[in-house]
Amino acid sequence: xxxxxxxxxxxxxxxxxxxxxxxxxxxxxxxxxxxxxxxxxxxxxxxxxxxxxxxxxxxxxxxxxxxxxxxxxxxxxxxxxxxxxxxxxxxxxxxxxxxxxxxxxxxxxxxxxxxxxxxxxxxxxxxxxxxxxxxxxxxxxxxxxxxxxxxxxxxxxxxxxxxxxxxxxxxxxxxxxxxxxxxxxxxxxxxxxxxxxxxxxxxxxxxxxxxxxxxxxxxxxxxxxxxxxxxxxxxxxxxxxxxxxxxxxxxxxxxxxxxxxxxxxxxxxxxxxxxxxxxxxxxxxxxxxxxxxxxxxxxxxxxxxxxxxxxxxxxxxxxxxxxxxxxxxxxxxxxxxxxxxxxxxxxxxxxxxxxxxxxxxxxxxxxxxxxxxxxxxxxxxxxxxxxxxxxxxxxxxxxxxxxxxxxxxxxxxxxxxxx
Length: 419
Ligand SMILES: *Cc1c(COP(=O)(O)O)cnc(C)c1O
Known about the structure:
The chain is of the alpha/beta class. Helix content is 34%, strand content 14%. The chain has 3 domains: 41-129, no CATH class; 151-381, Alpha-Beta Barrel (TIM Barrel); 385-418, no CATH class.
């Protein structure tokens, strides 16, 4: 082939591939991330610190962040220009549902445009929580799959221990909202001991998820004890913690906590970033510390209307996560939880997002889209369909670019001889 034509086909294809990403490149620069909005959140932080008369060391202390969580609209309105009707609504909701925002998470809100802020929507109650009562309190029937105190078992080889109902923040879209109407309570030691007995006596359990609430609301010493008990069971191969603190309270990820976690490998932490705005320098620092402690990080996003129900935003979120070494694991279709109907999306929206991830970005940035079957029958993946037909003669597939390709079934006993 003449030298000048050598790369012609490759160049043409490259041009075609470049055109595949143009619509994303056109909007990418306008997608806000925690890093891009740094200046604004720093200003918010200074204002909040002045209000609380706090020092930098207070801000960086998770105890201070927890103690000064904002859960009163009359304090919130010092930072966000709420209108009178909103103050009234928030007062009304507060009588029924708890809410609490850490000063840190509050600092991420764009106060000039708070009604459209994905941070505000996740943290501050909306009147629709009490106006629309469609949905269920316990859509997954967790109460029905509880063989021992604090345990939810829905699969053959793994289970959940719910160690607390406490969280750094009470996400408005929470699937366990029914648990946070009450006060903060950790599981009693007696119940944890019963839960551990159950695991000890059921040797097929090889994977134990400690969650809640938020697993990292437990003290370092209780976590250390619980993880040690699990380490002492030979059949428990891995442990996982469910926590949203890297997102809502990254100050919780202290060197002391990481020293504890480092003693209990193999340990996985799944967290929940839902917006690229949540991927901040503070979140990165928390994740860096966890990775250095040998923890493997994953993300379980929830598909939420007007927060991340858009392929470009979801792609940016997952790419931002890879930069801080958090591997996208699941995107959950929102459950029909009473008080959260305004967050729900159509399944088509989720499938469209999946369609626009595969091929268009790193496989590492592609989580599995999951819908939860009713009655606790388990997580079920939903996927665009890529296999159109298969018989003895022929396989028909559809590629990420929507090319329909017929080929030989690529199976060992159907291989034709070459030449
Ligand atoms: C989600 C969940 C698990 C873990 O499921 P994976 O798909 O392994 O992440 C285990 N037990 C219960 C009850 C769950 O809800």
